[in-house]
Amino acid sequence: MTSTPRSFGPETQGAIYARGLGGAKPDIPTAFPRLEADAAARMSPEAFAYIAGGAGLETTMEANRSAFAHVEISPRMLAGAGARELGCEIFGVRAAAPLMTSPIGVLEMAHPDADLAVARAMRDLGLPMIISSQASFPMEAIAKANGDGPRFFQLYWGKSDAIAESFVKRAEACGCKAIFITLDTTILGWRPRDLNLGHLPFLQAKGIAQYTSDPAFRALLAQPPEENAFAAAAHFTQVFSDPSLDWARIAKIRSWTELPVVLKGILRADDAARAVSEGYDGIMVSNHGGRQIDGARGALASLPGVAAAAANRVPVLFDSGIRCGADIFKALALGAKAVGIGRPYVYGLALQGEAGVRAVLENLIAELDLTMALGGAKSISECRDKLLTPASFFD
Length: 395
Description:
- The protein has helices at residues 8-20, 32-42, 45-52, 59-70, 114-125, 139-146, 161-173, 192-197, 209-212, 215-218, 229-239, 247-250, 269-277, 299-310, 325-333, 343-375; strands at residues 72-73, 88-90, 93-95, 99-101, 129-131, 151-155, 179-182, 261-266, 282-285, 316-318, 338-341, 387-388.
- An eight-stranded parallel beta sheet has the order 4-11-10-9-8-7-6-5. Strands 1-12 form a two-stranded antiparallel ribbon.
- The protein has one domain (8-388): TIM Barrel.
- The chain is an alpha/beta fold.
- The chain has 16 helices and twelve strands.
């Protein structure tokens, strides 16, 4: 696996300007507002609503961005950051940069190659992907497309422990190196953009390929999904969510696998402390991109407290609200070992498939690299003292 070049930012930036001499402009916009607008024009109204929307009045989405706005970078001059090391190790796999794609379901609404395109792009970039439980292709096909790329698996734990166990064992068999249990979606949040369109893709048998390919799920069906896809979709809605999920039940995963287990969706320091005390291997600070609870705290505002509770005993990861390389810098500075990218890569997928995903990630890495250079950080750890933020913001 190749490492990110030490001059990744200048190289990416320079290549864009060099092509500009011949009149060429980037196919994929380099800043999020234009990226989102172009993707909205390309996607169906239903697809864009599903990806772009949040819960309720979308105040949690706003809080995510407000949290980043409250954190200011305080660059250190003459720090000799001529070479930056962006590579890191995450659960035993080497990543070219502290980025991964967070799991987003039903990617077939953005592009027909869906998760396969993401898998190929991440393989080429040497960055991890987290395969979604709600993927458009079975995890085995995604793993094949990902080849020797680093990958993890995200588990939605519904009513059936048998299905959850089968998913975990399949993920281990197809080369996933960690399991991320999503805690914040034991039931779907109130999402007006989807509701106003009367659109739930799972009822159309989209985004349920992990289930229809799973022996434990198929055993529950009167007919195979190939004969009655909509009956399979209807049954999926009966087993997907279970708000009664608790600490005692998820402990069963230790009898299913020896892979590292990460709890995704932690926002409270006391939940983080319990996760550590119960022996979980990592924490991902996330509010599901604002898609689940309206009025929740911005995820970045919770990161320092969670990192303090983890006390370097397990790695703390982060997603929700990242839109640019400077955002990544801020999350790393507040204690994240690596970050997950969500909506931006889906918009790249919608615009240009695999090439679009690759371009979005390359742009984010380039901006992170340039921010580190300008901020005086030669490594991820050196980002830590480059912020100027009111302490009261994190209380």
